């Protein structure tokens, strides 16, 4: 008969035989891509994801899948073609920018969701220093960027040779702001696609930007409720065949201040600025034009500003009108004063779009105080600079009519 100690030892030995054999855990090392975007233990620490041939993340498509709210995506200069360029962005508080030059995104027959090179429907997103080109889709509405919803800032970007430079949907909470960017040679050639087409969104702001040579469509078309168009160049230029240079088909609240707006000889639409062509859809429909230089190079003349009959109110002050043309304003109320008609020879070099007035020009006279309208000052505080951007004006400076406040000697 075994002692109690022997019995306990035997039981312990039997239990040991029943226990699984413990082996060291296998470690799976992360891939280079995972290492490039690895998060800290905090999980929400913002990261910087770098894209390019010298980085672990090689394509913009992969970066869009990896990015999370609060991250920054830096894209190295170079060409990203086809399925290396297309992406859907759904994040919030995201910055996407080109570094070491401007990366060029070439569609080459590829599109996401049948819409374009990029689709954005996130939160607060900034896109900076990137070029979008070649977007085409079967319905002929391919866009460099298709903005479905969100608050988006576009800064120092280029959109060229797309069916739409940008196409913005109709989400009523969307806000789009564009700074110092270029939209040129976009359009499918059907008159239904444009350099920039903004849907029925909450607010649209653009300044310091250059719109030119849309292919039968408009240089800029916006259905937004609230519009601020300041210190831009919208010019169809020699050989251009754009339709409207600036259109607000649903009316809305529109401040148009300090812009150079030019219609080419070859245009297929005699109207330069149009307001309310499809009826007035917003509670407030007010158009304020101050210190713009509006040029009609169409030999047969045309309409500088056309406002359709209805509930709209229009104020135009301190604008310069160049070339043949009339005003066609049929709104319920209007204040059109101090607009000055001058000739091309009143400017420094209009053939090269230098519309600074000559010192002895009729355009160089003193302007009237434009005051405020729609809750905003109509006095320009900056002016457009070539090819994109703006320069500040001294706050105490007396103003002259038109978009350019520096008189050539």
How are the SSEs placed, and which strands pair?
Elements lengths: L3 H15 L13 H5 L11 E4 L8 H7 L5 E5 L2 E3 L5 E3 L4 E6 L4 E3 L9 E13 L2 E3 L9 E13 L2 E3 L3 E5 L6 E5 L2 E3 L11 E3 L4 E5 L2 E3 L8 E2 L3 E5 L2 E3 L10 E3 L4 E5 L2 E4 L7 E5 L10 E5 L2 E4 L6 E15 L2 E3 L3 E12 L2 E3 L4 E3 L4 E4 L14 E2 L2 E2 L4 E3 L5 E3 L17
Parallel strand pairs: 1-2, 2-5, 3-6, 4-7, 5-7, 6-8, 7-9, 8-10, 9-11, 9-12, 10-13, 11-14, 12-15, 13-16, 14-17, 15-18, 16-19, 18-21, 19-22, 20-23, 21-24, 22-25, 23-26, 24-26, 25-27, 26-28, 27-29
Antiparallel strand pairs: 30-31, 32-33, 34-35
Give an overview in words.
7% of the residues lie in helices and 41% in strands. It has 409 residues and is mainly beta. The strands form five sheets. It has an 18-stranded parallel sheet that branches. Helix 3 links the parallel strand 1 and strand 2 (72-76). The radius of gyration is 29 Å and the shape is globular. 45% of the residues are buried.
Q: Report the strand count.
A: 35
Mean pLDDT: 90
Strand fraction: 35-45%
Distance between the termini: 123 Å
Q: Residue ranges: pLDDT <50 for 5 or more in a row?
A: 1-30, 38-42
- How many DSSP helices? 3
**Helical amount:** under 10%
Give the structural class: mainly beta
Cα gyration radius (Å): 29 Å
Largest sheet: 18 strands, parallel
Shape: globular
Quick tags:
409 residues; mainly beta; 18-stranded parallel β-sheet; eleven-stranded parallel β-sheet; 3 helices; 35 strands; 41% strand; disordered N terminus
